[in-house]
Amino acid sequence: MIKENKNEITNKEETNIDEKTDTTDASKNTEERKVDNQRIPYERFKEKVDEVNELKKKLAEIEKAQKEKERKELEEQNEYKKLYEQAVQEAEKAKQNALNTKKSALLAQAGYDDDQAKALVKLVEGEDDESIKESIKKLQALFPAQDNFADPSAFNGEREKPKTRGADEVGAELFERIKNKIF
Known about the structure:
The protein is mainly α. Helices cover about 75% and strands about 0% of the residues. Helix 3 crosses helix 4.
């Protein structure tokens, strides 16, 4: 009876030890899985990116088809006023986008990088080239473009300035040079 109890206890201890080692192995496996989960194979990544791009294309096609369908319905209902207003809004948006693109390009020519240009486009005023250029000049005075260039004379110090000479010294020197030629 006592031997059976001892056997049962030792069996239970062995199973507890096995369970403990299993849990540590399981925790190691989950840590390895976490690391593996953080790394995504390129093929899988590419598949997902392609899938997202296809979905974007389909969404754009569906939106275009819905707009076309709505336009046809309005034409059938002879509601040309709404069609005209929609066309005017689209033209205004296109004009605004073109103007912002033009401002960004001129800011880039002025020496601003892309991030600076995006931030400063809102501050550029004007609709024509002259007013935009004037506005950019004002912006350059307030917000100089950040360049990544270094000063070549940063540690060289300042050049020595020549000694200043007065008119008397210059005149005396000239006289010394020409006095042998005159006399």
